[in-house]
C-alpha cells in the first residue's frame, strides 16, 4: 500500500510555488508520491478565468515530468459536472492506497462548506499548508470547530509518524508567485521566466493561453 498525497487545484497555470510545496510535503510526510489532480470545473472558481482543462492538465504533465515522486491524474477531467473533491477521493480510494489531501489553511477553515466534508476527511488524512503571512492558528475557535466537525481530534506537525485522527500541518517554503499574476503577465506579453518551468512557458506561448486574461 502506497502513501499518496492528493494535490488538487485549477493549476491555472501551475508554477514553481505549487511544485516546491508538493516536494516539501512529500518529504515531510515521507510519502511515496504526490498526485496532482487538475480540476475540470472547480465549484468555487469563475469559469471565465480558466484555461481549458485539457491545457491545464498538459501543463501539469510538463511541469512534473522530471520528478520521480510526482504523478498526474485526469480523474476529474473524465467526470462530468463540478469537480467535487469527495467524488475524486471515492474514486482514488479504490486503489487501497493511504491517501492524504493537501489543502491550504484558508481552504481548511472553509471546509465545512464543501460537499460531504466529513466523508472527505474519512477518505484521506488532511494536510493543511498555512499560507505565508496568514494568521492561521490551529488553536483558534474556527480551526477547532472544523477539526471536530470532520471527526479529527488534533493538529500535528507533518511527519511520517502522524498520530491517528490527527490533521497534519505542513509548514513549507512559500514563493511569492501567484497564478493570477502569471495570467496578467501572459496577457501583457511580460516575462514569465523563473516563475514556472520553461516547458510550461513555451506551452502557454504556443497555445496563446491567457492572452485575454482579465485578471
How many domains would you count in the coordinates? 1
| Number of helices in the DSSP assignment | 8
Query: Please, what is the oligomeric state?
Result: single chain
Series of secondary-structure elements, N-terminal to C-terminal? EHEHEHEHHEHEEHH
β-strand percent reads 15-25%
Q: Find the CATH superfamily.
A: HUPs
Strands, total number: 7
Q: Report the principal-axis shape.
A: globular
Per CATH, the architecture is 3-Layer(aba) Sandwich
Indicate the percent of residues in helices: 25-40%
Low-pLDDT runs of 5+ residues are none
Give the overall average pLDDT. Answer: 94
Largest sheet: 7 strands, parallel
Could you give a short description of this structure?
The chain is of the alpha/beta class and about 220 residues long. Helices cover about 35% and strands about 15% of the residues.
